[in-house]
Amino acid sequence: MPEAIAYAIDGPTGRFSRTTIQRREPGPTEVLFDIVYAGICHSDIHTARGEWGPATYPLVPGHELAGVVREVGADVTRFAVGDRVGVGCFVDSCGTCDQCRAGTEQFCEGPGGTVWTYNATGRDGLPTAGGYSTCITVEQDYVCRIPDGIELVNAAPLLCAGITLYSPLKRWGAGPGTRVAIVGMGGLGHMGVQLAAAMGAEVAVISQTRSKEEDGRRFGASEYYAISEPGTLRGLRGSFDLVISTVSGDQDLNALVRTLKVGGALVDVGLPEHPVALNLSGLAAGNRILAGSQIGGIAETQEMLEFCAEHGLAAQVEVIGGEDINAAYDRVVASDVRYRFVIDTATFTS
To answer: Which domains does the chain have, with CATH numbers?
Structure first.
């Protein structure tokens, strides 16, 4: 069986350390690829630290994988050795339920449901292990092709951060003639600004402070607002067709709802750890919509990658080694990264 060097954590209060894990030999329709870069998503941190419920330890997180195909099964038709590929938040599903047939495999309703890239149980009956490792074996239908116009290091975060913003922007009609606000300018938010601007929308950033204003405007925002400045959200009432919140901490949803135009939508992708309170009168008063969004299916993820290549969009990254993961987690929680940590797996063997 293929062997991978990985970084794993042994408990919610543990530290990452180097280890060795086994990957399965690729079956007839599976792809084995060498992971070159793996992004660090805040979801990794929530899971590793037990903040979203119990996890299976030792845990190898990572659902933003970019690499190069090493081996393919005999019946693989979509990929060949040497292809540049990526894997996102899930690696399998039943393939036959209504959701899978509709291209929304992330909501699989079949036996076992969606199989997540880590902290789940794979088709081999073993716990899945993610991208903080040197290789992985995945069914070809859950692998995306990385367009030549995107460097692998910048592509990795697109497999989660990119699709997480692309999907709701597309669904809720971001484009010419619409005014879109992105709340938060982190790993998700900086992609949201770029994507919304490329779609032709007028884009505003709503951040805690103005410390990232120069970046926000460089990414395509024409307006930038700081919640720390008194009266900011009150002054934005009735302003936006679409507001996407990427914030995972506490926030005033009632104030954000009121920044919507009549019929506007507030979409949350940040998944706050604690419950939030909402006064429904703010929705009813303007036929406003409160929605959530997760990621996207494989076809939509591939579409997002092609869109990014066409428009020259890329995640802005800080490359680290495996030995830096522990410190990187603390820096992500402290919002001290611009804008995504990406692990270079070449450091695992050095």
So the answer is: 3-160+296-349 (3.90.180.10), 162-292 (3.40.50.720)
